[in-house]
User: What shape does this take?
Amino acid sequence: MAGELEKSLLNQHKEKHFTSGEIVRDIIIGVSDGLTVPFALAAGLSGANASSAIILTAGVAEVAAGAISMGLGGYLAAKSEADHYKRELQREQDEIIAVPDTEAAEVAEILSEYGVQPHEYTPVVNALRKNPQAWLDFMMKFELGLEKPDPKRAVKSAFTIAISYIVGGVVPLIPYMFIPIAKKAVLASVVLTLIALMIFGYAKGYFTGNKPVRSALETAFIGAIASAAAFGMAKALQG
Amino acid sequence: MAGELEKSLLNQHKEKHFTSGEIVRDIIIGVSDGLTVPFALAAGLSGANASSAIILTAGVAEVAAGAISMGLGGYLAAKSEADHYKRELQREQDEIIAVPDTEAAEVAEILSEYGVQPHEYTPVVNALRKNPQAWLDFMMKFELGLEKPDPKRAVKSAFTIAISYIVGGVVPLIPYMFIPIAKKAVLASVVLTLIALMIFGYAKGYFTGNKPVRSALETAFIGAIASAAAFGMAKALQG
Assistant: This one.
């Protein structure tokens, strides 16, 4: 009996579908660092008298490392969330079957936090008790605040972040591919990257519902600060 | 009258306090990339015949740039979430005052998704209507799934991530400070960083409730892949 109930609960548990908001968020994560760190690294090294060849090598190596670290890191984080959700789902289900009165009391407590009186919430609690599938969904969402993750999300997320990082990272490095004197290449890189940062910042603001112009300026500002810091550190070490 | 209600709602809106879980998450974010990318960059450049001096310069510049990009980026993201929350709070409050019947219908819809019948949820809906503050809290949490962010969280988050990145990034670079021949320094860096990655991975698993040993191996694996990619790209460009 309990086995049937378990199987039924797990099979019918509602799936949450993700919107394109997740993809946009991953692109923002990848491009934000991708446009900033390789740019700053290259600009910093140009101040330390490195050649365009060395700078390009360092830049490309950093883009490869960064894309993998962020991509695989994002994948593991998403998988970890999925495993966490599965464990919590199993535990809630066990509690609903083993200690239903305790779980019912938790529902009552959740509703009473909103000033709802016992005689007002008791019909709701009883309705949930008669519908274990809905009860489980309710506990997952309202007690634990967890949504069922899409199993394919982890892989999609990893690739989106990694590719975004690579696309972002290549932009500042392009001048170093064509201008062998680093101190000249860096000027082109600064112009190219600042423009890219402002366009990206504007788009980011537009998609996240924040003021696009302010977002453009903030994003360019981070790039400027990061490259100034990299420049300063490189000069301090190499003179 | 509406003004008094508004002021009262906004002043009394419950605050959500964050647990140390936020700090642990930020440390994990910073150290994960900090231990991986500078390590991989340095290892990659050592394969391209760069000196320890150049590698140290590139590594330190990258750590500075990465800490700022992630720190400031994290700060802006947290502020953006806080602004989003404020806008949504204002909008829900306006709707509660202007179109209460529509909002009441939304509460009914939320509860009916869990199989609760109208005669069962109507007392709850009415209870909320009599208590605008609780009603607002309910809509924010159960319709929009938003929690009130701590205003100081953005700054704390930025510093935690940035400092974690720096601490993580310095570890792989230490050998290059003392061993001038890069091809020798890299061996020490690999050993030191692999140990650090495994210790960090183990701790990460422990704190996030995942198998610590598996987490240790996964974390070290990412470091290995990232450095192999960086090494490969650097060799391809410099030979």
